[in-house]
Amino acid sequence: MPKGKLYVEADFISHLDKFEKGGYQTFGYRAVYGVTKKLEAGVNFFYTRDGVTSAKEIQLNAKYQLYNSEKHGVAVSVGGWSFTPLNRSSNRRTTGMVYSTVSKSFKGLRGTRLTGGAYQTINTKRDDGAKQGWIVGVEVPIVGNLAFTGDWFSGNNRFGYASAGLSYTFASRHFIQAGYSWGNNGRGNNALQIFYGLTF
Q1: Bridge partners of 179?
Q2: Is residue 40 part of a domain?
Q3: What is the CATH number of the domain that holds 145?
Q4: Mean pLDDT per 10-residue run, the chain (200 residues)?
Q5: Which residues contact 191 (CB under 8 A, 6 or more apart)?
Q6: 108: burial class by Cβ within 10 Å (0-12, 13-18, 19+)?
Q7: Cα→Cα distances 47→23, 65, 179, Å
Q8: What is the pTM of this model?
Q9: Which residue of 40, 107, 117, 156 lies most exposed, with the fewest beta carbons within 10 A?
């Protein structure tokens, strides 16, 4: 985020099935603020219901841009994330994740951007799944402000999903994205995702 700018977002994530068959709905709220030209910080709140539990979690995050070259379309960033359960339904302790990414945009491909990186989890248990993984992402402009977006986090853990969808920016400050995600582990571990964001 540019320095002094605030981005807020509302999320809806759902496995489209009955609760007794593994269905759930997650409602999320995000806020990210541009602290300096190269540093942004944010806080997220997520609430999930599955017919039995109602897990609530707060997340703190920060991202720092180590390098950025508009001429060559290359950017390098590092970041961190903490995940703190707010009630017994969350059934977890505070954990974290650190990551680094490198992205490259291609002017000859209408600004298509590819991203690659790696992550490491912190304070996770053995049954939380993989502790390290890879990050791959792509953003492909289609027409106007409409773009295809996709990403994949490797590993069988809470991050291990492949996602794809469409995003659209309108009125310069508004952003909406709709897509679907498929889990790396477990049949039926997938979800519909709808995000709406606004920049101030």
Answers
A1: 165, 193
A2: yes
A3: 2.40.160.40
A4: 96 91 93 97 96 91 96 96 86 90 92 97 91 97 96 95 96 94 85 96
A5: 13, 14, 15, 16, 26, 180, 181
A6: exposed
A7: 14, 30, 20
A8: 0.91
A9: 107
